[in-house]
Prior knowledge:
mainly alpha; 4 helices
Amino acid sequence: MKSKAIIILAIVAILTILFCTPKVYAENKVLDSKIESQLVEIKEHEAQTIEDYQARYGSEAYGTVAYILELVRAWSIPLCFLGIAIGAVHKSILGIRKLDTLEKGRGMVVMFITILLICQILPLAFALVVKFGRG
Length: 135
């Protein structure tokens, strides 16, 4: 008896969800002209930056990789500092009561410092190998 009631209730719930959800229609003009022009400016600026890297490194592939490594270098700083701060909270505040959380915090701090160092040195190493490693 209870299983029939549960099945009927589940069917009613599914039908209610299917037929009573509001319909959402997309509007044709999503972006206004000011935002659209800003997006076009950003796209053109980034395309020019990629072309500058390609000209500097003498190859389309090397220039694109150098551009991506430069973006990784720039974005790694705030993200790794955030990770180091979270690890410090785990280590200092939460790790007082739990030893495993203390070790987790230490591991996070070491990991994010290592990632930060790798992301900062990798573009330099790539530039040295491309400039002086290619014969």
